[in-house]
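Reviewer 2 asked us to include a model.

Predict the structure of this chain.
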Amino acid sequence: MLQSITFIFINQLYGTVFIPEAVYRELIDPNFPVAGATEVQTFGWLQTRAVSDRTLVEALSNELDIGEAEAIALAVEIQADQVLIDERRRGRLVANRLNLRYTGILGILVEAKSKGLITEVRPLLDALINEAGFWVAEPLYNSVLRLVNEIDLA
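Predicted model (structure tokens):
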């Protein structure tokens, strides 16, 4: 349920979202079930794309896992407005080096609130942590809540 809500925000904020084949394969791998597997197979606005520039993928694979490498290569290839990168600092550094705008799930929640799609970030952030196993360091947690004016100042 939480993942479906988050995917709906992504659709409302960004419209059609392209996913490279490596990310699609990671998400639907039955041996390693993850959140989002159902959504990538059923939501029509999530479209899987092959990356043409295999040379760039190979070069990026020296620094990143294959999913991140393909995501960044696809973003470069289609001149994407933004790339969704959550897991690793290194992926964000590479995206920045290639002049790509990026965001993560926390950025999506902040943007969803700023656009009036949600009234509070805290319950969804807590659900990501407690239900989906999403790890957020306490300083980042507090920073996000400060950014959306939901921090307890007591």
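The first strand starts at residue 17 and ends at 20. The chain has a mean pLDDT of 87. We have added this to the supplementary material.
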